[in-house]
Task: structure prediction
Amino acid sequence: MRTRTKQPAIINHHAESQKRVFDEHNPFYLIEAIDVPVMAIATDGTILAANQLTLETLNQPLEHLVEHAVWQIFRSDPPHALQNVFSPLDITAFPMQMQLSWQCEDETSCIGETTLRAIIQPDGSQLVLCTIIQLIESQNILDNVITYGVLDNIPQPVALGDENDLLRYGNQAFADLLGRPIEDLIGTSFLNVIVEEEREFVKPRIVERHQGQGDIYETTIYHADGSRRYIIIAASAIIDHAGRYHGALSFITDLTTQKQTEQDLRRTNSELDAFSHTVAHDLKSPLSVLLGFADLLENEITNLDINDTVEYLRTMGQTTQKMISIVDELLLLSQMRKADVTLLPVDMEFTVNESLMGLAYLRSQHNAEITVTTDEWPAAFGYPAWIEAVWSNYISNAIKYGGEPPRIEIGATEEGDWVRYWVRDNGDGLTHEQISMLFKPFERLHTERAKGHGVGLTIVQRIMEKLGGRVHVASEPGQGSEFSFLLKRVPQPNANQR
Result:
């Protein structure tokens, strides 16, 4: 044990108030000679004295310690354990060991194993000597969280932000959620991946972390591929014994699949509502025609000319055929929801001709002129029966909504690995707003002219989705319209393969 010649680092104001005498027989004088950090503490918890090693260990001047309650300098776990030692002091409970922490010079938390001993002075008064017997290696509180390694093995995305709200750590599940290497994320703000329109919603919640508040909230982030991920964040503030904020630990749940399911359900419910309205409207009209002619024939058949009777029956047959067509398209729409098909090279010339043959009566009704501009149709991958339905919908719309009389061109254009098949009409054209509504389920435009029904373009959209293709409309008011669909082109064999 070494000795020192300098005076002990003590302030005796509080001691004098307790009528203590500081001389060579007083423990206050002797603590400077002790070779470990030690403090003298009054029975009410007030620090009375500290040796030089204590000041060096704590990196604090003496005036920052004396006449302060020991629990203002040190923190225990649980928080009130140290204060309870002196409330009131029970001398029979000593000696005791306690792990205490304090703020180090670099703002990290230092931890020490301490021994508290109660002694009785010659005058009968009591005090407590607190000795720091072992200094545990100081470490940033966030490092303590990370080094346990538990977070690495959690399948749920976990992120740890520092006191400046920059990412300090993220596990592999977190990196996978964002689609980015974790090293590219460390040191960046989590706000950067929040979609712009939700950042003002998230910022106040980050401020609440600094105040020690936890929170659970939903938000939306960007994946590296540009898509959006819907998530729920459960964030907890990391606060040390002194109440200082060190960061936040966030557990994240990916809600994307759930949200997409909810959106699909809402879309399906909306489509079902529109579907029932469409079926009711489109079937009611031909049924009314049939009912009217049936009533006429029943009551007036003996008074009708044979030619009139034949014409009425022909109209009834056409009306019935229209109803069958409606039912067929609705069945096709239902089939496409469930069916998985194998993509095959489609003989487009044959498919177009089949479609035109099926529209012969409609063409004659409207005196439509249809010009095929393509001599050799490029082949594409698809499903022949469905592709014929697409052509029939596009061409029949061009006939019904074209000019008077309709002048229609159909053709194909190769665009890299794709083929664009198109139908152009000489109709009134469409506004951008009308174009945006075209492929919504069961939307009907030009209702004053349309003699058909509102499922056609919905079928086209669904077919292209199932076949991996795309639909497109180009139109301006007064300039006619071009409806097209794109499919993957069948590669042409090169000379070596022929």
Remarks:
- The chain has four domains: 13-139, 143-254, 258-339, 341-498.
- Confidence is low (pLDDT under 50) at residues 1-25, 444-454.
- The longest helix spans residues 256-300.
- Residues 143-254 form a domain with the Beta-Lactamase fold (CATH 3.30.450.20).
